[in-house]
């Protein structure tokens, strides 16, 4: 499977204004390989069911992204709460048992505040989880971080119930 | 990375759901009464130019536009305006015009008559053609606005924004460009991963933005007319918050590099030389250039909560700029360089504030609960931003004196992160 980025240029049939954009560019998910279909049902990452908890999130979600665990955070905090000690420990043991295993730590915030600053807050949470895993014996090469800020909430809604779900780090298998 | 280009045939229906409607939510108490009479020579032309001008002036909130069915006569030249009839209706200004064929092209000729004197206040001939009539109308509205209000109009501009559409579990992020009146919305990028932070090049031809299409953030520069684009920053870690230098040759941006710590850098687009500007363990992000391009304003939480700082590009210490309020982020400099729009936390909500750079004083402009992503109109008179209304993200504008506000709704989905183009 090629890893090349595929860009689908759709030729627009109408271009009213001179200098107007003529070709919408469709970017498929990089993980979808050769599939360049540009319809709405090619959604890259199935997030259905994720909101119901870690147990269900362990099921494969439609493509190669497999969520192993979710750690939630308090408002404006990147402190890992004591209740997640066992989650961190379990992931660290997996990493120690298989040095070829890699994990992606995906940081998220709730919807409030400025979008790019939230990217920073999400990264801070991902880095906190990374440090905790390193302390438990994981190696630098096994861990990658990414922050989606407030872009990818897992719970719909605009109240504390949704926000508390959305302040999180998702630990996902990152290939090897 | 190799880029494989696919050329396929498809109709451009993707834009249908992304179009916008605009309504005034707050207007000035004293507005200028004006009438725009239907133009001669409209014939079968696809766009009613007079109604484009009429709608622009009305949407500005500074004019009271007399509706067509109230107009006492339908003159199309200065000489046929009966000023007395318009005076009776307390209409100060009457716009009349004609579309005249010039070979294959057209000329939009219009005049503004002052009904107090009966004389011509303004007259112009704008070359155009059948497919550019809307733009010609916007240009005419800009000229009329400038003559009467005293500052340039910003109608012949575009708005770029991100539209998030589709079921919650199958979202699409679309980068959309629309005219300033919400018409002609076109999707220029469609992705199943987030798109963020679009911003116009100073020449109005390109957009820089963040795309997560490779599962990590990267910054792209896309030429709007051709769709051609280039990845200008795809380093390990975060690539975010692009902002153009005033001359369009450099981008200020945020990188986290390997250690995960966000700092602000400046990238030379021609040489790809990267210059580190900040080096602090806090989150430093959301840079924007000062008017003289000698320094950057940026958001940093080095004092605990996010505040705005200014740092010289030549090196030196960052100076804190904002002191009012516990949260100030995402600075955008005004056109005259004397103030900036920021996101500020006010009584629990996030609002758009205007900070006077000389005094440091801050004035809240918006009234929502989650107002973010301010962007100035190129005439400096309005700020467009993202707001939340009934659970949906919408766009809104507010004038810098707070007197005029509009709300811009999309037919579907969430629309956010608006960026107002330069004058086209």
Question: What attributes characterize this protein structure?
Answer:
A: 176 residues; alpha+beta; 60s Ribosomal Protein L30, Chain: A; 2 domains; four-stranded mixed β-sheet; two-stranded antiparallel sheet; 26% helix; disordered N terminus; B: mainly beta; Rossmann fold; Neuraminidase; 31 strands; globular
Brief sketch in words of this structure:
Chain A is an alpha+beta fold. In chain A, 26% of the residues lie in helices and 20% in strands.
Layout: helices, strands, pairs:
The complex is a heterodimer of chains A (176) and B (424).
Chain A: E1 5-11, E2 25-27, H1 54-57, E3 67-72, H2 85-97, E4 103-108, H3 115-135, E5 143-149, H4 160-166, E6 168-173
Parallel strand pairs in A: 4-5
Antiparallel strand pairs in A: 1-2, 3-6, 4-6
Helix pairs in contact in A: 2-3
Chain B: E1 3-9, E2 20-26, E3 32-36, H1 49-59, E4 63-66, H2 83-88, E5 93-102, E6 105-114, E7 120-128, H3 133-149, E8 158-165, E9 172-179, E10 186-191, E11 195-200, E12 206-211, E13 218-223, E14 229-233, E15 239-244, E16 250-255, E17 263-268, E18 274-276, E19 284-289, E20 295-300, E21 307-312, E22 319-320, E23 328-333, E24 339-346, E25 349-356, E26 362-364, E27 372-376, E28 382-389, E29 392-399, E30 405-410, E31 414-420
Parallel strand pairs in B: 3-4, 3-5
Antiparallel strand pairs in B: 2-30, 5-6, 6-7, 8-9, 8-31, 9-10, 11-12, 12-13, 13-14, 15-16, 16-17, 17-18, 19-20, 20-21, 21-22, 23-24, 24-25, 25-26, 27-28, 28-29, 29-30
Helix pairs in contact in B: 1-3
Terminal CA distance of chain B reads 34 Å
Quaternary structure: heterodimer
Mean pLDDT rating of chain B: 92
Question: Can you tell me the CATH architecture of the largest domain in chain A?
Answer: 2-Layer Sandwich
Look at the structure and name the CATH superfamily of the largest domain in chain B: TolB, C-terminal domain
The proportion of residues in beta strands of chain B is over 45%
Level-1 CATH class name of the largest domain in chain A:
Alpha Beta
Number of structural domains of chain B: 2
Count of alpha/pi helices of chain B: 3
Mean pLDDT of chain A: 74
Termini gap of chain A: 16 Å
Question: Major β-sheet of chain B, in short?
Answer: 5 strands, antiparallel
Of all protein chain pairs, which has the greatest interface, and how many residues does each chain bring to it?
A-B, 64 and 78 residues
Any idea what the shape of chain A is? globular
Number of strands of chain A: 6
Relevant CATH superfamily of the largest domain in chain A: OmpA-like domain
What string, H for helix and E for strand, traces the elements of chain A in order?
EEHEHEHEHE
CATH topology of the largest domain in chain B: Neuraminidase
């Amino acid at each position: 499977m090629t890893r090349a980025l595929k860009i689908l240029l759709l030729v627009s049939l109408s271009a009213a204004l001179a200098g107007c954009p003529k070709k919408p560019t469709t970017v498929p998910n990089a993980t979808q390989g050769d599939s360049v279909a540009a319809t709405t049902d090619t959604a890259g990452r199935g997030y259905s069911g994720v909101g119901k908890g870690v147990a269900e999130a362990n099921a494969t979600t439609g493509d190669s992204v497999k969520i192993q665990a979710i750690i939630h955070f308090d408002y404006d905090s990147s402190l890992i709460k004591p209740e997640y000690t066992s989650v961190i420990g379990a992931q660290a043991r997996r990493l120690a048992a298989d040095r070829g295993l890699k994990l992606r730590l995906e940081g998220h915030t709730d919807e409030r505040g400025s979008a790019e600053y939230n990217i920073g807050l999400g990264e801070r949470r991902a880095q906190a989880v990374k440090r905790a895993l390193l302390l438990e014996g994981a190696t630098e090469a096994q861990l990658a971080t990414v922050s989606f800020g407030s872009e990818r909430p897992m719970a719909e809604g605009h109240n504390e119930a949704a926000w508390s779900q959305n302040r999180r780090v998702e630990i996902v298998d990152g290939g090897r | 990375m190799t880029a494989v280009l696919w050329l396929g045939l498809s109709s451009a229906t993707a834009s249908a759901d992304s179009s916008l409607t605009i309504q005034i939510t707050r207007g000035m108490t004293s507005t200028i009464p004006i009438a725009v009479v239907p133009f001669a020579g409209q014939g079968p032309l696809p766009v009613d130019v007079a109604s484009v001008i009429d709608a622009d002036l009305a949407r500005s909130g500074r004019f009271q536009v007399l509706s067509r069915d109230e107009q006492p006569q339908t003159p199309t030249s200065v000489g046929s305006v009966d000023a007395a009839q318009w005076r009776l209706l307390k209409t100060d200004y009457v716009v009349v015009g004609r579309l005249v064929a010039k070979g294959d092209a057209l000329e939009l000729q219009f005049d503004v008559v002052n009904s107090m004197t009966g004389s011509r206040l303004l007259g112009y001939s704008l070359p155009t053609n059948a497919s550019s009539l809307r733009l010609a109308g916007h240009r005419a509205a800009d000229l009329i606005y400038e003559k009467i209000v005293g500052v340039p109009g910003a109608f012949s501009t575009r708005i770029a924004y991100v539209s998030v559409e589709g079921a919650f579990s199958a979202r699409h992020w679309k980068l959309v460009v629309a005219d300033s009146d919400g018409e002609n919305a076109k999707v220029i990028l469609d992705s199943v991963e987030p798109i963020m932070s679009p911003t116009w090049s100073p020449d109005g031809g390109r957009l820089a933005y963040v795309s997560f299409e490779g599962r990590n953030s990267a910054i792209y520069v896309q030429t709007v007319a051709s769709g051609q684009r280039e990845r200008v920053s795809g380093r390990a870690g975060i690539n975010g918050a692009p902002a153009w230098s005033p001359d369009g040759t450099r981008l200020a941006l945020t990188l986290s590099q390997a250690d995960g710590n966000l700092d602000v850098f400046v990238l030379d687009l021609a040489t790809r030389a990267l210059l580190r500007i900040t080096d602090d363990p806090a989150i430093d992000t959301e840079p924007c250039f000062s008017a003289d391009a000698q320094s950057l304003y940026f958001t940093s939480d080095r004092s605990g909560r996010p505040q705005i700082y200014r740092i010289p590009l030549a090196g030196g210490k960052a100076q804190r700029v904002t002191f009012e309020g516990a949260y100030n982020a995402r600075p955008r400099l005004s056109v005259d360089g004397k103030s900036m729009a920021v996101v500020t936390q006010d009584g629990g909500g996030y609002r758009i504030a205007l900070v006077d750079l000389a005094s440091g004083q801050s004035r809240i402009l918006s009234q929502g609960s989650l107002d973010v992503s301010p962007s100035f109109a190129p005439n400096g008179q309005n700020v467009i931003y993202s707001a939340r209304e009934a659970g949906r993200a919408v766009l809104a504008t507010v004038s810098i004196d707070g007197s005029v506000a509009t709300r811009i709704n999309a037919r579907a989905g969430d629309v956010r992160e608006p960026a107002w183009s330069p004058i086209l």
